[in-house]
Amino acid sequence: MEALFSIVVGVLTASGIYLLLRGRTFPVIIGLALLGYAVNLFLFSTGGLNTHAAAVIGESLTPTDPLPQALVLTAIVIGFAMTAFVVILAIRARGDLGSDHVDGQQGEEGDIPR
Amino acid sequence: MSLLWIPLLTIAGIFVPVIAARYGRKACITATLIAPLLALGLVLLHAPSVIAGDVVSLQIPWMPLLGLDLALRIDGLTLLFSLLILGIGSLILLYAGHYLSAKEDDGRFLAYMMLFMTAMLGIAMADNLILLWLFWELTSISSFLLIGFWGHRSDARRGARMALTVTGAGGLALLAGVLLIGQAVGSFAMADVLASGDLIRGSANYPLILALVLFGAFTKSAQFPFHFWLPHAMAAPTPVSAFLHSATMVKAGVLLMARLNPALGDTALWAVSLSLVGLATMLYAAWFALLERDLKGILAFSTVSHLGLITLLLGLGSPLAIVAAVFHILNHATFKAALFMMVGIIDHETGTRDIDRLGALWSMMPLTGTMTILAGSAMAGFPPFNGFLSKEMLFEQSLINDLLGALSLVIPLLVVVAAMLSVAYSLRLIWSLFFAEPKLTREQKAQPPMKVHDPARGMLAPGLFLAAMSLLVGLFPMTLASPLLNAASLAVQGETTPVFHLALWHGLNLPLAMSLVAVAGGIMVLRQQRYMARIASLFPERNAGLIFEAAVQRLIKWALWLTLRLENGSLQRYQALLILSALVMAAIGLAHLDSLTGERGLQPLDGMLFLGAGLMVFGAIGSALSHRWRLVSLLMLSVTGLSVSLTFVRFSAPDLALTQLSVEVASMILMILALFFLPQRPPLLVSGRRILRDLLLAVSLGLVVAVLNYAILTRETLTIADYFLRESVPGGGGTNVVNVILVDFRGFDTFGEITVLTLAGLATFKLLNRLRLFMPSGNIEGIRWSRHRYPLILSVVAQILLPLALLVSVYIFLRGHNQPGGGFIAGLITATALLLQYMARGYDWTRERLPLNYSIVAVSGLAVALATGLGSWLFGYPFLTSAFGHFHLPLIGEFELATAMLFDIGVYLAVVGAVLMILINLGRVTTVNRPTLEER
Predict the structure, then answer these.
(1) Complex confidence, ipTM
(2) Hey, what CATH topology would domain A2-51+63-97 get?
């Protein structure tokens, strides 16, 4: 199971990084989100992968480590805030530069939707 | 305590001239002199006990963890240097008052001089190595200011920059050396370091320490091959040169070597490096002093040469050689300061420093001439001047050295050659300036002869006093110098006090013969000077300034090239480089791991796990592959996101699952909105090479992350979970440990996080402000968007759902402290429910019925959280301390109220406000109600 989990995290990372390296803003946003999942899963897994062990007192005799969960919970929300910020930035850049290229290159043919 | 007053006085002295400058030159100088003279008085108060062999010291802890104390000491070496710095310094301040022209900014000049004086005094007094280094750096900086005082002249700027570069590099090396010494000794206190000589010499780092420290000392003291900055520093005003290059700056390196002699000295490596470098410097610079035409250049090279002499004496290391070294530090400072003042006078009176254009000044400037003859004879080493005494001692000590085995005889021979050159350039100075006719060109002869005279008494007096001192010390060495030398060499040698007798006449012996040879040889060299010039003309002329400048330019060009290579303006490239370096570092870390799988056993797999993993992998790879079909890519992303949420459910993290689920909904709406404004099908303009590169990077980093994760998962980890699990109920009053951590144990972190969230919301508002966008009227295939913006079924369902969703969010909120839930999740649910109204009915309709300003909601959430935190101050507890109690209400029963709940309300409001702020603002761009600055 550990191996499977690691593979999933690895695949999420790889896909995220690949998208992050694209030249247009939208794939970069998607890549960031994917990378965010990977990072959150990774951090979460440092507390161990335990089933039926929610960190609620009285629910389980061997509760899992609550600290990574608390960290990841805020990470998810902050991740959303950052994604939102990047999205708005991309839209603003599009509006000001007429292109959705990450380097702000002026728009090529076919960039502007009809 | 009086020790601390000495540097404090000179520090105060920095500000005196700045204030006093407006009351005129004379008042300014007088006022500035008060501080150094008082400091000198304080030093002299300690003189009797120091001469008796005591070390006065003061320790005030400063940063004890770094080993840095405000520790000062006065021992013999400090005494000698304080007298030079404060005594000669005061004379030079007096002289500077006459030297500077009326329009010069004397307040600034004197302030720099005092700053430099403080720094130099600090080096002499520091009883802590790091403190010493701090003052060392301060001398580099303040000398930069002084050398570049005439900043409008390019040679001054260049000279200052060169001095700063060379001595600054030395300073960095010295810092490294000091740190290594501290590592070896375990303390930076001077007393500990000086007592641990054997420890340092025995450590494996000794050669490195020595190299670093000596690099610092050699650059500062202008030893070959780092001497080149000193002649260029002559662009400074002459009082600066007189101070920096006779008594202080360049002596700092010598001082350092003398100071650390007990700790680093007494090894073959030390002795050989110091003597050979000293000897080379002495010879090389003496030769150039003979060829130089600029008066200050002659003195600069002779200074370098004499510093070499002192270094050589320190390298010889015998007790009497140390005495001679200390003695020569004193002597050189005396006669060289006088000579620099003389050059200043001549420059001031005649307007030139070219030795060939000057001559026959004796009849016009007898007092200046007397001063030059006295100080120049001391420099040449003629009896009965002080320079003779220390030179004799050098001859004597060089004869008994055994540094180079059978070749040791080379040292006294070369010393005699250097002494010969020294006699030659000293005599040249006296002869050409005051007795020989000037060598003028035809045009110069056509001009009327110079009419010059001795300067004002105030300008002459300091130099004459110093010149007289060099004679008096020569005549009565045992009375005037011996006690001081005794104390100073005690400090340099550590334990033993050498017995010595200073006298002009030691009988007919070999050193006397060497002196005679040097004088005779010197006169012969001077008489054959045109041959010297011819020899020199055989070598290509090398201008150290140009070479240095070229090296600097090369460095700049190279840095520029590198910057352009790295920063070509492509964010994609930066990203790739960043990822590559992360990859390399992680890979290096993993390579040190012994085995991949750790000691913890593996857990079994089941079908659900495979299904989940398959979904996530499918979603991730799918969204990467389909990134040009943007909507598809987004849908694939949501598959992964929802599966992540299921993963959290599976592995006992209900809070995370709920959060992920609600954030997922909000993010999807956000990105679909974004898609509306971004091109839906970008052109394919990517080369295969680029795709291959990105794939390689992505796959390798993915592999590294997977391996890392696997390695962590299969190992036992140290955790602080027990603390939280134990303290959750008694300390935080809640059974949901994750929530208790968020709102209680780590409340401050959470507070920071909701602040970031709110800031992101506010930033989106600003970014969308007055944004003009094309409003797409149809999709990529040309199909127009439907005109039915608000479908009926959706509006009806949304309206029914709203109260239910709000009810659920209240429930989730209230149970959050004990069961999965809490402010974050409740906030997200509320936000989603409200968002649905906007989507179903449009901005205008909803706003009419729900006139909420979400930025105010978010900020008030922050305010509530902050007020809760501050509230604990009222009860005398630290920020964000929580309290809770159990209450009983009829019908509802036992329940619990905690201040953490109040904090959670803040979180809730901030989340609702921020999420809606972001989404509504973005949504509004699609309507006529675009956000503007006027409306908030």
Answers:
(1) 0.92
(2) Helix Hairpins (1.10.287)
